[in-house]
Amino acid sequence: MKLILIGYMGSGKSSVGKKLATVLKCPFIDLDAYIESQEQKTISQLFQQKGEIYFRKKERKYLEELLKGTAPIVLATGGGTPCYGDAMKYLVTHKDTRTVYLQCDLDTLTNRLFHEKDQRPLISHLNDKEALNDFIRKHLFERSFYYNQAELKVPVKHLNIDEVVEH
Ligand code: S3P
Q1: Residue 155 forms beta bridges with which residues?
Q2: Minimal CB count within 10 Å: which of 47, 54, 70, 92?
Q3: Mutate which of 122, 123, 141, 143 for ligand 1 pocket (most atoms within 8 A of beta carbon)
């Protein structure tokens, strides 16, 4: 079984994924980190030097590469991974996968991302908290269409990491 964590930037996919993989005794893979190692560039460099379309193509390519194996894994995707092309359908219908949406509320995301936006090219230019909040609200609304197709939804607002892992 492959557990695929999806959700907006800052929803905790990587921290939850690491812990979940330890509990399940299987490898944890972070798709962004995998892309960075394969491309030998940071995500910011890829956006800056090659553009977002190039990044999205690589994101899909490496996603498929990682799901080819048969071994169980916990995979943390990037916030946009399920929202391009037929990626969400691909994830949900792929043999032996379960998709889990870490559903985080707007204000928590804004507060977290305000301090963690520098490595995230889509929001790194939003220096004003209100502008960031406004961007996330619209973006999350658009993306929720995809996220909500996950097989399991975990509302993370009042939960600590261990409780999310328990779910
Ligand atoms: C993105 C989210 C990022 C990273 C890239 C684009 C997005 O991953 O893939 O900056 O489109 O939401 P995290 O969700 O891990 O921040």
Answers
A1: 103
A2: 70
A3: 122
Rounded to whole angstroms, what are the CA distances from 73 to 4, 27, 36, 88, 144?
Answer: 8, 5, 19, 18, 25
Contacts of 142 (CB under 8 A, 6+ apart): 83
| ipTM rounded to 2 decimals | 0.98
Q: Whose CA is closest to atom 12 on ligand 1?
A: 79
Ligand 1 geometric centre to CA of 167 (Å): 23
pLDDT score of 69: 87
Spatial distance between the Cα atoms of 153 and 95, rounded to a whole number of angstroms: 19
Residue 14: name the closest of 74, 80, 99 by CA: 74
Looking at CATH, the fold of the domain delimited by 2-166 is given as: Rossmann fold (3.40.50)
**Which DSSP string corresponds to 102-138?**
EE--HHHHHHHHHTS-TT-TTTTT--SHHHHHHHHHH
Domain range annotation of the chain: 2-166
69 is in an annotated binding site: no
Cα of 32 vs centre of ligand 1, distance in Å, is 7
**Cα 112 to ligand 1 centroid, rounded to whole Å:** 14
Other beta carbons within 10 Å of 48: 11
